[in-house]
Amino acid sequence: QLQASGGGMVQPGGSLRLSCSSSGLTLNNYDIGWLRQGPGKEREGVSCFSIERETTYYSDSVKGRFTISRDNARNAMYLQMNNLRPEDTAVYYCAINDPIRNHRPACSDYTPLGQGTQVTVSS
């Protein structure tokens, strides 16, 4: 239902824009987010947007470099990633939270959907 795309290999300092489109889900009814899981690491919440609180969360490691956005007309969400670092290497997943069923969960607890997209930052 959700499929992330836009990953790839990039040199440190480079940029990528991840996209996630939905079929069957109306994204503007959900909190949206991006999670990632690096090699040998636990899954972490990168950035999430809460409809109720109208606030955006960024993990400290990406703050100032990544930007989450959504396009309700296209039923899509994005993650603009700038100044990428080797430690950003991970599989990135788009994720949602139903704000009616799950009230104010942590970003890392959003539900990832789809297979994710690989981002590799290496020189």
Give the overall silhouette: globular
**Got a strand count?**
10
Instruction: Give the overall pLDDT as a whole number.
Output: 93
Oligomer: single chain
Structural class: mainly beta
Strand residues, percent: over 45%
Uncertain stretches: none
Radius of gyration: 13 Å
Biggest beta sheet attributes: 6 strands, mixed
Helix content: under 10%
What's the total helix number? 0
List SSEs in N-to-C order. Answer: EEEEEEEEEE
Biggest sheet: strands side by side, in what order?
2-10-9-4-5-6
Alpha-carbon distance between the two ends: 34 Å
Textual characterization of the structure:
The strands form 2 sheets. A 6-stranded mixed β-sheet has the order 2-10-9-4-5-6, with no helix packed on it. It is mainly beta. The protein contains no helices and 10 strands. The chain is globular and about 45 Å long.
Q: What's the layout of helices and strands?
A:
Blueprint: E1 2-5, E2 8-10, E3 16-22, E4 31-37, E5 44-50, E6 55-58, E7 66-71, E8 76-81, E9 90-97, E10 111-121
Parallel strand pairs: 2-10
Antiparallel strand pairs: 1-3, 3-8, 4-5, 4-9, 5-6, 7-8, 9-10
